[in-house]
Input
Amino acid sequence: MTEASATPPTGSAPARSGRLREFWYYFRENRGAVFGLWIFVAFALCAAFAPILSPYDPTEQFRQHILQPPAWQEGGSWAFPLGTDPLGRDMLSRLIEGARYSFFVGIVVVTFAASGGILVGLISGFAPKWLDMIIMRIMDIILAFPSLLLALVLVAILGPSLTNAMIAIGIVLQPHYVRLTRASVMSERKKDYVTAARVVGASRLRLMFVTVLPNCLAPIIVQAALSFSTAILDAAALGFLGMGAQPPTPEWGTMLAEAREFILRAWWVVTFPGLAILVTVLAINLMGDGLRDALDPKLKRS
Amino acid sequence: MTTPVMSAKGLSQHYNVGGSLFTKPQVLRAVQGLDFELQAGKTLAVVGESGCGKSTLARMITMIEEPTSGSIVLDGKTITPADWAKLRTTVQIVFQDPYGSLNPRQTVGKILQEPLLINSPGISPAEREQKAREMLSLVGLRNEHFDRYPHMFSGGQRQRIAVARALMLEPRVLVLDEPVSALDLSIQSAILNLIVDLQERLNLAYLFISHDLSVVRHVADDVIVMYLGRAVEKGRKEALFAAPQHPYTKALLSATPHADPTQKTQRIKLEGELPSPLNVMPGCPFAPRCWKAQDICRQTMPDLVGNENQVACHFPIGPDGT
Output
């Protein structure tokens, strides 16, 4: 194999980079995860440099090129490599621009859900029994609904827009973080180092954020990676149902919905946004699996 | 006799366990009516099998839990929860498991500086680091260990770090909750010697919790033998080891191995399990397992009596061993 595999992680390096190296050592074991990581990086670059990469403005309409097929098919031209949609807009540009929205949705939703969920989970883990019970029952109620249905109801109440869709998805994803954080907090809290910090006089806030939280992060990071894809998928689903981003926003789900009626006449208008969603979500899930394998000591093969 | 650093009177801790919406919680009497005194530079050892309330005692002394009843007096002043924050620096603890007692995400330096950071915020960072480094060398670790993480150390070294952390606040009472029972035998003695050495240098009062009598014999000045939350025998180490008065103490002593294989020891085997502390019967808690038990033992609880060495037994074992 490559030269890197010959050097197992050693303790001689400074601790932080040593831990990073160990992480990479375990992460690399999983081929699919590395593959997913590269696709995710490409996706992120697309999102970051969308205006430079895309050949046209995603909303510009070329009226004489309506529903032009992709370049390799008869009637296609390299001016529009992936063809054009019913309004004559370039598919490639729209897909690249759509990566931006998806990435944005993923980041905002995960940040919102994770920060809220971690905070509530920490409080729940440290709270007296009654408060803990109230919080967990509320989370159970949220979890009892199918997530998309609940998001749909929330958007219907708030009004359809990408922002409201993100808020709704964030609320729906939150209970997972709450439960995960609470569970790790409960198991960490019993350990002696927490008692030691208490004996030394650490305040409750210090115990929560400085002593316990850093030791609970590994499963939360994995959950964040996995819910990134859930967020993208849910946002696309809401967009498809007309409850997310509104036309002419080149959001992948919205694009699918717009092109639905042309599915038999022009396969490319539905296939490409669908493929984009599929590949992105798959890549992030693969990467998340690898993260879990690398970060969870219980699954580590020695 | 000098005034004790810390003394406890009638210390008890009861927990409510079980108990849901429909059932009444049961009362678990973890510790009942414990009296003791800690002197500067002396070690009081508390021995007993698992579940007899040793660790609960440690939690009360270190002000993690408030006793249900009884009082702890520190320098002639009774401790109330309101004083906890001020008095924390006086009492510190070393835990049994050196793998669980150090935060895996903090470097040794951070672990040692945290007590100062919390309790004396006025100290400059440079001075804090200086003090932590001094403490590191005091417990026999090297300067380069300062920036390492706990997982890079062996059990013995970790326990040294734990001792160092406990001493950072210059406490006067140190609770050692089975500090060596998780370590290899060869490392146990090194840690014990460190503990004894530090006591001499810093004039610390130790509350040494253990179930290992050979360790207790090595470090203790006074010994309390606990059984099911109560002290059954209490006294000077020499007297207690030479002539145990309570049958339980005798049984415990007979179970410790001797270095001399030719010496015949009569091993006393105790029948049965420790009774549940949830439903305590009237009478002596040791009666169900005691070979000397008679009717009175099962009906009335004996008090802790005696002058020098106190024992709670209706039929204490005399100097002749019967």
Observations:
- Chain A has one domain: 38-54+80-299.
- Residues 1-13 of chain A have pLDDT under 50 and may be disordered.
